[in-house]
TrEMBL record:
Species per Swiss-Prot/TrEMBL record: Gossypium darwinii (Darwin's cotton)
Subcellular localization, as worded in the UniProt entry: Cell membrane
Recorded GO CC terms: plasma membrane
Family statement drawn from the similarity comment of this UniProt entry: Belongs to the RLP family.
SMART domains: LRR_TYP (SM00369)
Listed name of the protein: Leucine-rich repeat-containing N-terminal plant-type domain-containing protein
Keyword list, A-Z: Cell membrane, Glycoprotein, Leucine-rich repeat, Membrane, Repeat, Signal, Transmembrane, Transmembrane helix
Pfam families associated with the record: LRR_1, LRR_8
Ranges in a coiled coil: none
PANTHER family: DNA DAMAGE-REPAIR/TOLERATION PROTEIN DRT100 (PTHR48060), L DOMAIN-LIKE PROTEIN (PTHR48060:SF21)
Amino acid sequence: MSCRIFDLSLLMPSLTTIVQLDKLTILELFSNEFEGPILKDIGQLSKLEQLLLHINNFTGYLPPSLMSCTNLVTLNLRVNHLEGDLSAFNFSTLQRLNTLDLGNNNFTGTLPLSLYSCKSLTAVRLASNQLEGHISLAILVLRSLSFLSISTNKLTNITGAIRILKEVKNLTTLILTKNFMNEAIPNDENIIGEGFQNLQILALGGCNFTGQVPKWLAKLKNLEVLDLSQNRISGLIPSWLGSLPNIFYIDLFANLISGEFPKELTSLWALATQESNNQVDRSYLELLVFVMPNNATSQQRYNQLSSLPPAIYLRNNNLGGNIPEAPIAISSCVRSQPK
């Protein structure tokens, strides 16, 4: 049994009785104008598998009764005004939880250790909150995790985060934008060993990192999207970027990079051939990816890698010289205008 409400904000008072629908498995109330706290008795819906309340105006804390929804597979509360210490909420009863999206709220505290009890998790977004602390080794128990976005928080220790997250073997999407402020980006080419072999999207923009484009990126043969924009990365664009066989989106906007445009980038297979276009990954991402995470309701959101525009963003650096002659497909992807 499911309940879908797409634009019925006038029915908000009736939501208090929805908990009487004890056979309900899906509750979709997203993209409305609901406000006030989430129902304190939501836990009475013990058969609930999908709770989709995103893009509303809900306020207050996560209701403790939510822990009684032990059949939850998907919980999406993104883009509301929820608050409270997230590390104080006990996620450990939600053993079937597969997808968790709490992005764009006002949660505080640290990354909740109880979340690592939810070993069925494949996708987690905690982006655009006020979370502090660092990535814990405990995350390694999430062996099925493939999508992780914790952008726009207050995390620290990027070197420790890379050392740990490289061991999450199924990780395909890692978005850590706007954390680790003013730290040095790790450049040791051995830091990841054989890790990150399934990584397709890596976003480390907006952190004000110092250092150079990390050498360990050269090992990420499945990488398709790389965002290092809005940092203080200096030095040259490394020629080995041109050896990454699947990369089609490189964002180095607003750094301190100097030198010339490396001719090796004109040979990027994923940008230069029709054959690569035919082989592009058209599977759906576990959660939407936002190119501009500060505006999570903008139109620049993507649910497929293949939907992202092939591009090389290099504006606002210190580059000089000439762009080497390139195939037409490559030339059309080198952008100097805002995205």
